[in-house]
Amino acid sequence: MEEFARIRYWTLERQSAEWQLQRGVALGIGDDAAVLDFSSAKDGIPGERRQLLAADTMVEQIHFAEHTMADEHIGHKALAANVSDIAAMGGVPLHAVVSVCVPPSWGPDRMKRIYDGLYACAEQYGVAIVGGDTTSSPSHLVISVALTGAVEAGKEMVRSGAKPGDAVFVTGPVGMSAAGLHLLQAAAGKADRPGADDPAYRSLLAAHQQPAPSVLAGRLLLRSGICHSLNDVSDGLASEAWELAEASGLRIVLDERSLPRSGSMSAYASRAGANPLDWMLYGGEDYVLVGTIDGGGAAAVKAEFERHGLPFYVIGRTEAGSPGVELIPLPRGWDGSGDGAANETLARLPLPKRGFNHFGT
């Protein structure tokens, strides 16, 4: 099957021209470039808007392998990672271009399944696929997605706006994706796949293979008017907290008692003899949001999240000082009772500035 026949096989009749027009697509797949009209996009943004642009790449054996991801999962996650970046700015995702480098071992049907996952994610988050590029690769599959979005002019969420005295929050549990990856790797090559088929751990696998970006959470935070900084948890909570601290020039103090833990993650960590805190702080790929908010308004924002069926957890605070991240650890013998407020009698532990890093530095 030649190149353009493959592209048609992967993309034809996936999204109607009428639907794409509602997302501001004047001309989609089929020409040398797409033509976009942001002023006509039905994105729910009143008045003047700004354009957002994000890009992300996934490489076989670096980001995925046959024992960790089905073909459909690869397509879903390639787009979801970009959607999460738009969500972290408080924006609405709109248009994507998808480029693939395909080795001989990946035939047209396997690639079609990747596009099945990609388009399923696009439908879920209202993303119009408007083009891309296809080329051959000598050995490994590479999929790269660039995504546009829109946000109210001057209201985009950034990392550098945190203020001393802010409350630090996350919009969901962390560590689940890392636990899911650990489970998949532990089960690889074993005929009975111990644990991987246990319904109790299904949420861990879904967190790794089919993450759900926090677009609505980002929009609610933008509309609150009191969210000062925002980031998505792609490289680990500690790493993202460091990014906020350095960009804003202050110190972040996290309270271990307030970190939201998934019950399935804790159960699997106990079974695997692992420390769930490592997954929570350094695992990454959770795609929840972490940020800072005016402490006096945190309760109201939490209530608004609850009205939309979304979680919201205050996990620490910011304070003046040289940039850094510290953790107030669990007190010895703590049984989970209490309100999770920071115990100032406990020594703070500095959290190292590490997370997933492609170049190991």
Automatic annotation (TrEMBL):
Catalytic activity, EC: 2.7.4.16
Catalytic reaction annotation: thiamine phosphate + ATP = thiamine diphosphate + ADP
Amino acids binding Mg(2+) 1: D56, D133
Class of this enzyme: transferase
GO MF annotations in UniProt: ATP binding; magnesium ion binding; thiamine-phosphate kinase activity
Binding of Mg(2+) 3, residues: D32, D85, D232
All residue ranges annotated as the PurM-like C-terminal domain in the record: 163-322
BP GO annotations: thiamine biosynthetic process; thiamine diphosphate biosynthetic process
Residues annotated for Mg(2+) 2 binding in this entry: D56, D85
Record flagged with keyword Disulfide bond: no
Top-level division of the source organism's lineage: Bacteria
Binding site residues for Mg(2+) 5: D235
Pfam families, per the entry: AIRS, AIRS_C
Keywords: ATP-binding, Kinase, Magnesium, Metal-binding, Nucleotide-binding, Thiamine biosynthesis, Transferase
Annotated residues for binding of Mg(2+) 4: D32, D85
InterPro entries for this protein: PurM-like_C_dom (IPR010918), PurM-like_C_sf (IPR036676), PurM-like_N (IPR016188), PurM-like_N_sf (IPR036921), ThiL-like (IPR006283)
UniProt-listed SUPFAM superfamilies: PurM C-terminal domain-like, PurM N-terminal domain-like
Residue ranges occupied by any PurM-like N-terminal domain in the UniProt entry: 30-151
UniProt miscellaneous comment: Reaction mechanism of ThiL seems to utilize a direct, inline transfer of the gamma-phosphate of ATP to TMP rather than a phosphorylated enzyme intermediate.
Family: Belongs to the thiamine-monophosphate kinase family.
Function, as annotated: Catalyzes the ATP-dependent phosphorylation of thiamine-monophosphate (TMP) to form thiamine-pyrophosphate (TPP), the active form of vitamin B1.
Protein name in the entry: Thiamine-monophosphate kinase
Name of the coding gene: thiL
